[in-house]
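<instruction>
Derive structure tokens from the sequence
<data>
Labelled lines for chain and fold:
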Amino acid sequence: LAAYCEGNPVRRVRIGRERLRQILHHHKISFQRTRTWKESADPDREAKLNRIEEVTTRFPHRCFAFDQFGPLSIRPCHGTTWAQRDRPDRLPATYRRTHGIRYFHGCYSLGDDLLWGITRTRKGGDHTLAALKSIRSARPDGAPIYAILDNLSANKTPAIRAWANKNKVELCFTPTYASWANPIEAQFGPLRSFV
């Protein structure tokens, strides 16, 4: 940045590295990686977000979130260990996925702050339906419950919709490109670091 300021043909500014650091620190500016962001163009965006906010606020003990997390690959990762001096344990830099990959199908109860789920080898409507049935069994009283999930086609099969109508489960879909609206996403960050 100092070199850029000094070489700027429009207005040349000479500044020392320490003074530049002080100015940036004073204005709370730091060197960071850029992040991507994609805004939802879903025509029903506001209605979907409003419904999710309403059910999570009014019925937290009857509100659940579901999502698939993955692919997770089972592979060795570096860490620390006790070893003989000058003879550290070595892990291969390349690893062949001999065990394949897995997906965590997670369910989260907002009112109970409880996360549960199962790992599967693939995503599919049958697995989503199994997860929704486990959610329904968490509140077996027959009163309505609300399931927040994304727009994956495996989450919207005719069998899932028919089962949800029959069992008083309202499916609250997040808008397209708005997975952040699903409360389970906050649980997946720590889960990713543990896996």
